[in-house]
Structure formats: C-alpha cells, structure tokens
Amino acid sequence: ALGSPTQRRPGSRQRFVADLSQCLFDFVIQLLPTQEELAVKEDVRKLLERLIRTIEPESRLLSFGSTANGFSLRNSDMDLCCLIDSEERLAASDLVTMLGDLLERETKFYVKSLPHARIPIVKLSLDPSPGLPLGIACDIGFENRLALENTRLLMCYAMIDPARVRTMVLFLKVWSKRRKINSPYKGTLSSYGYVLLVIYFLVHVKNPPVLPNLQQMPPLRPISEEDTHLNGHNIWFFDDIELLRQRWHSDNNESVADLLIDFFRYYSRDFPYNTGVASIRAGLLKKDSKGWQNDLSNQRYNDARERNRLCIEDPFETDFNVGRCVTKDGLYTIRGEFMRASRILASRPERAIVALAELCE
Ligand code: GTP
Ligand code: MG
C-alpha cells in the first residue's frame, strides 16, 4: 500500500529526512540526565573526595568519561579519577585497598576493590533511591591523566557543533546499547570506541568536514615540548572553542539525519576493516604501518590477530587500539547492525518515528 520508494511523490525523501532529524532531537532530549541526577552525582563525587582526603590529603577526585564530556545519558555510570598532587604518595594498589576498606566502613556503597588489576580501581554501586531511581555505578581510578585529557578532547568536539555531534553520539550510544553491541567484555565495542568512530567520520570522511581536526590545528603561540607531552604522548589540541567558533566554520550543512544515514552506510560498506585504522589524529591509516596486521598466518600471532579486527587509534596513546576487544564474531555482529540500520533508513518507511523505533528495537 505504501508503494515502492520510486513511486512516491517527489520531495517525500526530503520530508522523511527532515522528520527524522526532528525525531532524533526529540528522542535524545528525553534520554538526557535530569538536573536532579546530575546534582546527586556531584554530591556523591564530593562525598567520595572528602573521604579519600582522609587517606591522601593532597588528592582531588575528578569526573571523566560521559559525565564530563557532554555525552551522558540518563543513569550512565560515573567514571572518577583520583589525582594526587604530592610527591610522596601511596602506590595505587595500596590506595585502592585502603580506600575500599574505608568506603565499606563509612558508606552505604557496595564496594569491590581491584588492587591488582592492570589499572587498579575501586568499583562502587548504590541501590535505587528517590533521587536515583536506577541506583548508581561508579569506578574510581588513580592518576589516569590521559583519560582526563581525552575526555576534554571529546568535550571540545561536542561543543563545536552540539546540535549535530551530541545528537549523533547520544543516539548511537542508545542504539548500540539496545542492539547489544556495546560490551567490550563480550567482544563488541566500548562507548568510547563509538564516539571515536563518529568523530573520525565527521572530521575525515565527510567532505566538506563537519568538524576540524583539533589535534592538527596550529597553536596560537609556540608551546614547549614539556607542556604538550604526558607520559611520552603528545596531548596537545586546539581547545579555545570560543575562538574556534569565531574563526572556523563548517561548509557542511547536512542535517543530523543525513549524517546518521551516511554514517551507517560508511561503516557498513566503505570503511576498510581489513586494512584500515581509523585515526582522528591522522585520518585513515594502514594497519601495516602500525604493526596492527590481522592477516598473519603464523599460529603464534593468533592472539594479535583477534585483537586487531577493528582498529581505532586512541587520540593520544597512538600505540593503543581502542577496538582491541572486538573479536571476529563481535565485528561481524557490529557490521551486521550497521547494515540493518542502513537498510531500515534506506527503505524509507512512511514515518520517521517508526523507523527510529525499529532501529532501536
Ligand atoms: P557510558 O559509560 O556508556 O555512558 O560511556 P562513556 O562515554 O563514559 O564511555 P566509556 O565508559 O567507554 O569510557 C569512559 C572514559 O574512559 C572515556 O571517555 C575515556 O576517557 C576512557 N576510556 C575508555 N576506554 C578507553 C580505552 O580503551 N582507552 C583509553 N585510553 N581510554 C579509555
Ligand atoms: Mg562511562
């Protein structure tokens, strides 16, 4: 009864895309955290900071991840990082054990300390309450300054064009969770990985680009090596967003729906998964050039092969593949989902809202 797409009235495609953009905005707005949730989380952060200072008086507890980068959904977990400003400090593993014991004694949190993990952390959770109907989950790590910096980079990208960037990212986060392809532990991709895929697409795939490359813009004044490097990694990027807004303007006027449709098409069909590395710092790179090949036939490299199915270069830790957890099956599932999304949006259902519901089913 709906007829094939070609039989439709001219202009129906434009109307569908315009409706889809509006639906996307409406959809993500109702998924944003409430003011109350943000206030409770800030209270929790302050409380935890006070407690940590009884062990390490010179410490600060800072938010990173989605609570700090503008890509937070309702009830997302809290990522906290403890920085200690004094020279003589406890080893992270000792701090984790002591802090875990303290929090168990002094608070209502369920506490799990992982002092011997690759990155020692304390995991906390709280049951639902009126202010937090879904409870709270929180990880506290130590001295993870690179994570604070990459959070700031993502936040700057979000601020350049919030309407398009945040809407796309937030939608993809919900979509990837609902479609169950957002679990690094089960062989699919972290939220951080999806955000990097979106930014890579907006900086390097779209022409004209929707976003500038903040890591390649010239600094306003010369900066010393010392100021731009952290643990041997170049962490410099152009972060004066006010100035950038005055000086840089995207010539790309596509709507958020156009961009989303193209995003799904690109990652289902065009991204060279076998040979390519998505790098927001440097554009499309070759796995070969990074030693991230996945076609080694030697049995000994089985493990490496599994780690480099999907290659996404971390913006600062450039020897680190953010997609390392994605397995062969995981990538197959993820690409299948990109194709399914592409198909649903290309089939031009009569109403955008129906398409959106089907996408996130
Ligand atoms: P939700 O928790 O799903 O809301 O998403 P999120 O935006 O908090 O992302 P996620 O929990 O995946 O990551 C949180 C933060 O941890 C990121 O912003 C990064 O700073 C850091 N992070 C996560 N995964 C990696 C990784 O593989 N490498 C590095 N360097 N940092 C990571
Ligand atoms: Mg998080």
What would you note in describing this structure?
By secondary structure, the chain is an alpha+beta fold. The chain has two domains: 35-145, Beta Polymerase, domain 2 (2-Layer Sandwich); 161-211 and 250-359, Poly(a)-polymerase, middle domain, CATH 1.10.1410. The protein is built from 14 helices and ten strands. The protein has helices at residues 12-29, 35-53, 66-69, 92-106, 145-160, 162-178, 191-205, 225-228, 241-247, 256-270, 287-290, 302-307, 328-346, 352-359, and strands at residues 59-64, 78-84, 110-114, 121-126, 136-142, 229-230, 233-234, 276-279, 283-286, 312-313. The strands form three sheets. Strands 1-2-5-4-3 form a five-stranded mixed β-sheet, with helices on both faces. Strands 9-8-10 form a three-stranded mixed β-sheet. The protein has a two-stranded antiparallel ribbon with strand order 6-7. A hairpin with a 3-residue loop joins β8 (276-279) and β9. α1 (12-29) crosses α14 (352-359) and α10 (256-270) crosses α13 (328-346). The radius of gyration is 22 Å and the shape is globular. The two termini are 24 Å apart. The mean pLDDT is 91. The chain binds guanosine-5'-triphosphate and magnesium ion. Guanosine-5'-triphosphate (GTP) is lined by residues 64-66, 69, 71, 73, 76-77, 79, 146-147, 150-151, 173, 190-192, 314, 317, 320, 322.
The low-confidence parts are none
Q: What's the assembly state of these chains?
A: single chain
What's the count of strands?
A: 10
Shape, principal axes of CA atoms: globular
Q: Look at the helices and sheets and give the structural class.
A: alpha+beta
Order of helices and strands: HHEHEHEEEHHHHEEHHEEHHEHH
Helix content: 40-55%
Strand content: 5-15%
Major sheet: order of its strands? Answer: 1-2-5-4-3
- Note the total helix count: 14
**Mean of residue pLDDT values:** 91
Gap between N and C termini: 24 Å
CATH topology-level name of the largest domain = Poly(a)-polymerase, middle domain
Alpha-carbon Rg, integer:
22 Å
Distinct small-molecule ligands in the complex: guanosine-5'-triphosphate, magnesium ion
Number of domains: 2
CATH class category label of the largest domain: Mainly Alpha
Largest sheet: 5 strands, mixed
- What is the correct CATH architecture of the largest domain? Orthogonal Bundle
